[in-house]
Each structure stands twice: as C-alpha cells, then as structure tokens.
Amino acid sequence: MRIENYLGFPTGLTGSELADRAILQANKFGAHLSVPTPVSRLAFENGYTIVQLDGGETVTAKCLLIATGAEYRRLGVEGSDRFEGTGVYYAATLAEAQLCRGSQAVVVGGGNSAGQAAVFLSGYTRHVLILIRGDDLYKNMSSYLVRRIEQTPNIELVCNTTIRRMNGDTHLGSVDIVNSKTGEERTVETLGVFSFIGADPRTSWLPPEIERDAKGFVRTGADLAGSRSWTSARQPFLLETSRPCVFAAGDVRAGSVKRVASAVGEGAMAVQFVHECLKHM
Question: Could you please report the per-residue DSSP string of 158-206?
Fold first, then answer.
C-alpha cells in the first residue's frame, strides 16, 4: 500500500518501492545482503553472539541488531483458515485488488493500515465495508485518512461489528457479521476480507537473555532500568537490549512508534550505538 507520511516523498510510494531503493542504496555502499535465511536460535558464547540459521550454519558476531518486525494477527473466526490466500488477505496490494475488482471488499480494523487499504481498494472494487469493534474511527486512525474515507462514496463504515463466520467453496463467497450492541446479524457477499487487526512481534526465536514485555516486544534502553537482566557496569544505550551489544530497532522493539520513518531512523541510530559498543570491547 502507499506510504504517504514518509519525509521526502510528498506523492507517496509503496513499501516495495522503498525496499527496492533501499537494496540499491545498500549495494552502492558495499553492504552484503544474503539470500533470506530464517534464524532458528540465538546463543551467547565467550562474549560473542552466535546466530544459528535454519540450515544448521552459524554466524558469529560481536554485535547484533534485531529488526525482525512484527507479523499480522490472524482473524481466528470460523472458516478463516480455509480461505487464507483465497479470500482472506493481510495486505492490500495491486495483486489482491485485481482479485476483488468490481466486487465488494471487507476491511477489518481501525488503524492507519486499514484506512490506507480501504482507500486503495475503493479504486478497484464496487464497494468497501470497514468493520471496527468500537464506534469511533478517529480513535486509532490519522484524521487525514478518516476524512478521505468520509469523502469516498463507495466506502462504508460499520461500527461495533465483527465477523462471525466465513462461507464459500474453494474461494470465499460471503461473511456473516454481527453487531455487538444490537446482536443483529447479516450476511455480506464478498470475494475478499482484508485483516488489519494488529501485529505480534517476531521474537519467538529469542532466548530468555533478551528481555521482552508482556506482549513479546523487546525491551531496550531506559525500559531496562532496574532490570536484573542487565549485567554490565555501564547503562544500556537507547536501543540496546538486556544483553550488551545486542540491539533492537523498528516494530519489534517495545515502545516503538509503528511508522516507517521511525523504523528507518532507529536503524540509523543503531549504527552509532554499535560503533560505541565496539569501542568498549
């Protein structure tokens, strides 16, 4: 979807465009980008960080930056698992929009991602329904997006409503929705449900030495004040985790602002902290 609040791009750009440009820029400065390889385990040995890859290989480093982000939460309603990829989506790109062209789309969620998806899909679909649990779209969505939604004639906001059941054969055909206040149920025909109901951090691979909050996000810097996990004589750097010389940046970090500009900025800040950490080794 289009990112419209990133400095320097007044007309906006997509996430894939930004990523492609970042790869070109990294290559220009000599960064080594390996083929994506899942990390299965993180360990510590003789002051070094040992990253174990899914294929059994290991990478040893003095410093580590955790920037694994977060993944979208699943809807978890009856039938949703059956239609993932054939009617249930967690992103609204051109590919998904084409699959719903001319039909009705349902967007679940009240944050900026949901708002951006609804506006984008309105240009391809006949009608877009936005379902939210609460009764106020302004509570969790930027006002400029809410105003744009209000000004788009084929977007309809349905408050206090959730999906109860999904129906179809090989592809999603309809959803049963229910109003939490009135108990009223109705069936909505749709070829696509787009879910934006929050995200969980990708931290299940981290060991106990990396302290996390109740939701699984990595604690850093001042958030570690008084923590027994921090054993160094110095205070942790702003983006440093409970393990010295291991840093976290972006959506995976507890207390981070879930915005592209913030994630990029934290990544840049982490470079300076890595240099400072290496000076003390």
Answer: E-SEEEEEEEESSSEEEEEEEETTT--EEEEE-SEEEE-S-EEES-TT-
Distances (CA, A) of 265 to 32, 143, 232, 244, 249: 20, 24, 26, 21, 9
CATH number at residue 182: 3.50.50.60
Query: What is the reported pLDDT for 257?
Result: 84
Tell whether 85 and 108 lie within a shared domain: yes
CA 115/CA 155 separation, integer angstroms: 10
On whether the CB atoms of residues 204 and 42 are closer than 8 A, the answer is no
Name residue, tokens 């002051």: 47
Residue 35 clears pLDDT 80, i.e. is over it: no
- Per-residue pLDDT tens for 17-32? 999 999 999 999 999 8
Q: What is the per-residue pLDDT across 124-133, written as a single tens digit (0 to 9) for each? A: 999 999 999 9
Residue 252 lies in a domain: yes
Q: Write out the residue range of the structural domain in which residue 28 sits.
A: 1-33
The verdict on 142 and 159 lying in the same domain is: yes
pTM over 0.85, yes/no? no
